[in-house]
Amino acid sequence: MKMIDEKIKNISNSMNGPIKKGQKVMKLIFLVHLYVYIAVNLLLLGINFVGWQGFAWFPLPLIGWGIGIALHYALYKFSISRKVKIMDAIFILHFITYALVNLLLIYVNISNLWENFNFWFLLPLFGWGIGIIIHLTVNQLSKSKGKTVSEMSFILHLVAYGIVNFFLLYINISMFWLSQYLWFLYPLVLWGIGIIFHAITAKIIINRKLSGIGLTRLVNKMLLITNIAYYSCVNLALLFLGILVIPQVYTGTLFMWPILIALHAIYIGLFHYFERIVVSFKAVIFHATIYAASYIAAFIRPPVLNSFTINWMIFGALIWAIAIAIHLVLAIIWERSEHNLKVLNRSVFLVHLFAYVITMITLIILNLTTFTGPLWSIVAAFGWLVGLGEHYVLYLCYEKEKLQKINARGILKISTYIHITAYVLVGILLIWINLNLGGFLWFIIAMVGWGIGLGPHLIINNLVNKK
Predict the structure, then answer these.
(1) Spans of the chain below 50 pLDDT
(2) Cβ-count burial of 201 within 10 angstroms (0-12 exposed, 13-18 middle, 19+ buried)?
(3) Tens digit of pLDDT for each residue in 113-148?
(4) Is the distance from CB of 311 to CB of 318 less than 8 angstroms?
(5) What is the pLDDT of residue 302?
(6) Which tens digit of pLDDT belongs to each residue from 274-293?
(7) What is the pLDDT of residue 207?
């Protein structure tokens, strides 16, 4: 935990070096956030009074976002204070969020009781409260000395198990009149099995002082044993309840689940015991194994066979086979280049570009011949183009060695490039959709609203990365 604290501090300090300059940047970011908050809420206020005069909904985003503004201000104050530790600051922010949001929900619930006499605010209050207690446990464990990660993770798991099941017990008992059934016993027992195996695993790790590969092997083996135990217990429970006789149930639990267990076992054997095979080729083999297993699972519950389903099954099989072939080619390139990341980066982008072109040609042909009507293929093309554009930005950044040394300044600069690319490409897509659907030009609202967020991002990037 101390190491995490130090890394977070190093990242925040790397933005601008001297602490005073970093504080100025944090203050600037908060002021920009405040400006955006005011600008957007004024826009929403105008829209509310012009378009929806019957219902004043603008206070909802005003208060909801206002909670975020309050948290941002608290975060800014914590960032310039050396007295509050990072883990404590994160918990305090979480608790403030919990308190403010639940106060808002209580107000909404109480003010509308005349419509529906239901105290629903108790559900998020207690549900989120579980998360608060777990977070507090994590915070306290991080301060405890002499405890290993395995011990702390088990204690945290046990606390979560106790709190959640107590909450479920309360719900079950308080609403027993509705179902007349003690269903809380199922999560209590099934989750309890996981707790038992977690306790055994933690004990072995502590006694043997395992780390690295030995630790990974043990965890994977225990997960496999837990998976098998769950398979047995769930099927016995379903048999006892008389549900296992339903075909839709037993095909899944009795026959499909073992396929997942087999894949789990193959993964452990492949990645932990066949040391002569390099990891990249192991990944290809496992990819092909998943491919085969998925088709075995498909025929356990055979679909209604007709020309349409047969054609789609063949089409799906070909697409997946092409994906495995591409995976194999990338693995070969990776090994031949002696693990050169630049070569892999270039190859992955070219494969992505090739897949985009081939898929778009296929979709356009299908759009014009089989699935005629609106040009939905254009929407698919622009949608995927957004992802391809973001990939191209990352590719160029790595080629120009902007991704070689990751620091806060570099992350901010790259995120700005990605943001601009997404804004332009998504904007084109929204304009296309809006013009084809006709009617009100709603894309203007989307672009202006997003532009309000993009502007501060550009300003902050220019100020932080100013030479």
Answers:
(1) 1-5, 7-9, 11-19
(2) buried
(3) 666 667 788 888 888 888 888 888 878 777 776 677
(4) no
(5) 58
(6) 888 899 999 999 999 999 99
(7) 76
The amino acid at residue 181 is Y
Contact 227, 190 (CB under 8 A): no
- The residues near 273 (Cβ < 8 Å, ≥ 6 apart) are none
pTM over 0.70: no
Place of tokens 């699935």: 371
Amino acid at the residue 131 = G
Under 8 Å between Cβ of 91 and 78:
no
pLDDT computed for residue 300 by the predictor: 74
How many degrees, rounded to 5, is the angle at CA 412 between CA 409 and CA 416?
140
Answer for the pair 367, 377: CB distance below 8 angstroms, yes or no: yes
